[in-house]
Write a structure and sequence with these properties.
Elements: H1 3-15, H2 20-45, E1 51-52, E2 73-78, E3 96-97, H3 102-108, E4 117-125, E5 129-130, E6 134-135, E7 138-139, E8 143-144, E9 148-152, H4 163-168, E10 192-197, E11 211-212, E12 214-216, H5 221-227, E13 236-243, E14 253-254, E15 257-258, E16 268-270
Parallel strand pairs: 1-2
Antiparallel strand pairs: 2-4, 3-9, 4-9, 5-8, 6-7, 10-13, 11-12, 12-16, 13-16, 14-15
């Protein structure tokens, strides 16, 4: 909001015979609308950044082939397959063991072509049997039950949680820091993660939140989400994205939460507006 717009408000107020008190209310309302519109635009502009893979990279490379990450989605960019690339062994059709070569499985699943591209992989519980098939020049084999599996869920996050994400999204406490989730690996910068926050306790924990719009990656996740406007005290599901730092963090008071100033750090958190309003009823 620039000075011209403020002067225009003052001029109209004078013509209407409004008092200074009335003018204060009008300006406050205008600033509220302006800044909240800016916040929505900021959230909408945040894009996931896919991690770059080699042709046979698996989830183990990112240290996320683990039970505690079941239900999470990971965005990856597969390179173009060259004549020097050979395909590691693959098992299954559409659903694959979690240690599968991601790009090989993606071509087999019709998620990308050998020219490469971006895929979104979800880590799921394993299945009893994997049936092999011949697809797109890739032969997969049968395989017995595994603990975990992967599926390809499209290029972008959906507008709602699927059953696996709903059931397996980590249940955080209001004093859980992002650094306690096991997802603060530098290799996962640019990735998004889904968590569930319970209903807030009568007394919220202390101000362990740093920043505004962008937060320190050791902040309390649920508190930071409330401060960012992506969660209420009723709790619900929230999407967190880990980002490279962009300058010092500035504190503010928002939605009843006071955040602190802080250093830029090595990673920061943002809350993209993936699930508008709180998914407390999911």
């Amino acid at each position: 909001m620039n000075n011209d717009s403020i002067d225009e408000i003052k001029g109209r107020a004078k013509r209407l015979g409004l008092t200074g008190k009335h003018l204060g209310w009008i300006v406050a309302a205008a600033l509220f609308i302006y800044f909240n519109t800016g916040l929505r635009a900021y959230a909408a502009e945040i894009q996931a950044v896919p991690a770059q893979l080699e042709w046979n990279t698996s989830l183990k490379h990112f240290q996320v082939d683990n039970e505690k990450f079941v239900g999470q989605r990971f965005s990856f960019s597969c390179p173009e397959r060259t004549v020097r690339d050979s395909d590691d062994a693959l098992h299954g059709t559409d659903t694959y063991p979690s240690d599968s070569p991601i790009c090989v499985a993606a071509v087999h699943a019709n998620a990308v072509t050998p020219a490469g591209g971006v895929v979104l992989v979800q880590l799921n519980p394993g299945i009893e049997n994997y049936s092999g098939s011949d697809r797109n020049g890739i032969q997969s084999a049968d395989f017995p039950e595994t603990q975990r599996s992967i599926v390809f869920v499209g290029e972008k996050f959906g507008s709602s949680l699927d059953p696996v994400q709903h059931d397996y999204a980590p249940r955080l406490k209001w004093d859980t820091k992002f650094t306690s989730t096991g997802l603060a690996n530098m290799k996962l910068v640019g990735q998004r993660f889904v968590f569930h926050c319970p209903q807030a306790p009568a007394e919220l924990p202390g101000r362990r939140v740093y920043g505004t719009d962008r937060y320190a990656f050791n902040s309390y996740v649920c508190l930071a989400a409330v401060h960012a406007g992506q969660l209420t005290a009723a709790g619900g599901f929230v999407t967190v994205q880990m980002e490279a730092p962009e300058g010092q963090l500035r504190g503010s008071i928002r939605n009843g939460i006071e955040s602190k100033n802080g250093p830029a750090g090595t990673r920061q958190l943002v809350f993209p507006a993936i699930y508008p309003s709180v998914a407390a009823t999911q």
